[in-house]
Amino acid sequence: MIVCCTHTHFSADPEDPRFQAEVETRILHAIHAQKYHDSEDFGVSFQSVPFEGVGKSRISHHEAMVLLQLVTIYKDQKP
Fold first, then answer.
1. What are phi and psi of 54, to 5 degrees?
2. Residues 4, 14, 67, 64: what is their CA dihedral angle, to the nearest 10 degrees?
3. 8 contacts: CB under 8 Å, gap ≥ 6
4. Inside any domain, residue 17
5. Does this model's pTM top 0.70?
6. Which of the pair, 39 or 55, is modelled with greater confidence?
7. 55 or 21, which is more confident?
8. Nearest CA to 49 among 67, 72, 70, 64?
9. CA distances to 33, 35, 74, 76, 77 from 40, in Å
10. How far apart are CA 53 and CA 72, in angstroms?
11. Cβ distance 67 to 2 under 8 Å?
12. pLDDT grade, residue 41 (50/70/90)?
């Protein structure tokens, strides 16, 4: 799922219940759209990288929280 905006002061607030509901809806849609296969040997990895080069918004004066997060599920322990 990619959520993007042209500037961080237009980005969603992760504490906003409306944004949380949108994220949940998108994740559930992606889960339901997947093709699943049986496997006894699979792996899961999660990576989260913060980007702190944005600083404060000059409009709303809040600190931007920009994250790249990646969840990978793979078969046979091979990413």
1. -90, -45
2. 90
3. 54, 57, 64, 66
4. no
5. no
6. 39
7. 21
8. 67
9. 21, 16, 11, 8, 10
10. 26
11. no
12. confident
Q: Count of domains in the chain?
A: 1
Helix segments in the chain, DSSP class H: 17-33
Say what percent of the chain tops pLDDT 90: 10
Q: Look at residue 59 and tell me if it is in a domain.
A: yes
For tokens 């929280």, what's the residue? 65
Q: Is residue 29 part of a domain?
A: no
What are the distances in angstroms from CA 25 to CA 51, 55, 69?
A: 25, 29, 17
Residue 77 included in any domain: yes
In one letter, which amino acid is 33? A
Domain, as residue range, for 76: 37-79
Q: Within 13 Å and on the Cβ side, how many CA atoms surround 33?
A: 7
Helix (H) or strand (E) holding 59: none
